[in-house]
Amino acid sequence: MSVAIRPAGVLVALVATAALGALSQVPYTSERGSDAYVRLAWRARGERVETCRRLPPEELAKIPAHMRREEVCEGHVVPYRLLVTVDGVTAAQESVASKGARADRPLYVFLEIPVAPGRHRLGVAFARIGAIPAGERERGTLPERLDLDTVVSLGPRQVALVTYDEDRARLILKGYGTPNAP
After folding, report:
1. Residue whose C-alpha is closest to residue 151's, from 34, 33, 38
2. SS3 of 181, please?
3. What are phi and psi of 20, to 5 degrees?
4. Are 122 and 151 in contact (CB under 8 A)?
5. pLDDT, tens digit, for every residue of 74-89?
6. 3 band by pLDDT with thresholds 50, 70 and 90
7. 174 to each of 120, 124, 179, how far by Cα in Å?
8. pLDDT digits (tens, 9 = 90+) for 119-162
9. How far is CA 114 from CA 30, 91, 94, 149, in A?
């Protein structure tokens, strides 16, 4: 019985190889259309706000000795509002908040907006939601507000990338399009 299976297996392998060879000759285009894209992508450490309180002796007594701290602090990273306009029309508007069990992770922005090829006025505003209580602030955090207002020319399937430059603390435009001064 195993002798009859071998020629059948070889025949199946040959047919599969021939079919794969034939399929590899079929023309394929991967075009997603002729749109251009504005992509926003960055990661930044937001402003961390902490509220601390001293524990009274009776509350400290309930905590195991190895976990006792006289002061307990709870905090979160302040959320930001993202607003994107293309030619004066709102293309995206959303709140960007920190993730994680303690809401202490960096802020992440990733958004892709399709636009018609051509010249467009692009506006991006990334602003802190709410005021920060007086107190010490972390170094290297985002400014209260970031703005980008520029004109960009994009061809079909080109991408203009808006990202955050941490060294200069501002939004910058990169990509295949040709940015023009406003």
Report:
1. 38
2. coil
3. -65, -40
4. yes
5. 777 888 999 999 999 9
6. low
7. 15, 14, 8
8. 999 999 999 987 766 655 555 578 889 999 999 999 998 999 99
9. 17, 9, 17, 18
Host domain of residue 124: 2-180
Percentage of residues in the chain with pLDDT exceeding 90?
Answer: 38
Element containing residue 14 per DSSP (H, E): helix 2-23
Q: Are 34 and 114 in contact (CB under 8 A)?
A: no
The span from the CA of 14 to the CA of 110, in Å, is: 47
The answer to whether residue 178 scores a pLDDT higher than 60 is no
| Best CA proximity match to 118, nearest among 92, 86, 85 | 86
Assign 21 a pLDDT band (cuts: 50, 70, 90).
confident
| Counted domains in the chain | 1
